[in-house]
Design goal:
Blueprint (H helix, E strand, L loop, with lengths): L7 H20 L5 H7 L6 E5 L5 H8 L3 E6 L2 H14 L1 H4 L2 E5 L12 E7 L7 H10 L1 E12 L20 H7 L5 E10 L7 E9 L2
Parallel strand pairs: 1-2, 1-4, 2-3, 4-5
Antiparallel strand pairs: 5-7, 6-7
Helix pairs in contact: 1-4, 6-7
The chain binds S-adenosylmethionine.
Length: about 210
């Protein structure tokens, strides 16, 4: 069997099939507990949800007062997110800019977000490059929240649903953030908060300069 490449065609096909067959279930997805736990005490401002997928995290942020740019390269996922936001109400929908873009090439203006989140996104190039790209969009005083699912469950050695993907891990993110410019507030592996096995790497850092 050929290995998936996790490119735009792969994700668009996956989202369009999932939404066609299980749209109701997707509509009830909860926001990430890592997100809600880490961000709830931050003052709302401008946020980037990079690789927003079904949009539950974007919706939670917008409902909590954030002005969100939600980027994904799956048009189906974005359409789902947009319709969920409209169903919540005009005020929340107006706080979200759904943007179709490939994170490998899409760039935000430097320092233009108070919060950048990137959860469970496969890095097509190096993790280091992806972290630097996300970090550069954070304003001084702002927060970077990265979450990755480990491809192997460390307790059993079994492959997880992230097998074959390259997602952020604690060591690589911490190494990529210049300690003169970043305070790493959280850098830990936690039991997975959504369906599946294994652990998630959760990194929250604050930009100092
Ligand atoms: C596993 S899903 C995670 C979605 C959401 N962040 C969450 O935590 O539920 C990964 C998402 O990232 C998107 N994605 C992956 N690589 C991307 C890229 N290079 N550019 C834009 N979106 C990307 C996919 O389309 C998919 O919606």
């Amino acid at each position: 069997m050929t290995k998936p490449t996790y490119d735009q065609a792969f994700w668009e096909a996956l989202w369009s099939k999932t939404l066609r067959e299980h749209g109701d279930k997707v509509a009830h997805r909860r926001p990430s507990a890592h997100l809600t736990g880490e961000v709830v005490n931050l003052h709302p401002g401008r946020a980037l949800d990079a690789g927003c997928g079904h949009g539950a995290d974007t919706l939670w942020l917008a409902a909590h007062g954030w002005q969100v740019t939600a980027v994904d390269f799956s048009a189906s996922a974005l359409a789902h997110g947009r319709s969920m936001a409209e169903a919540v109400g005009a005020e929340v929908a107006a706080r979200i800019d759904w943007t179709e873009g490939n994170l490998a090439t899409w760039t935000a203006d430097p320092g233009c977000f108070d919060l950048v989140i990137c959860l469970y996104v496969h890095a097509a190039g190096s993790v280091d490059e992806m972290v630097r790209r996300m970090a550069s969009a954070v304003a001084v005083g702002g927060t970077l929240l990265l979450v990755g699912h480990r491809p192997i469950d460390p307790s059993t050695g079994a492959a997880t649903s992230a097998a074959g993907q390259v997602q952020v891990c604690v060591e690589q993110v911490v190494a990529a953030l210049d300690p003169c410019c970043w305070e790493v507030v959280v850098a830990e592996e936690r039991p997975r908060s959504v369906a599946g096995t294994g652990v998630d790497a959760v990194i929250r850092a604050r930009r100092l300069s």
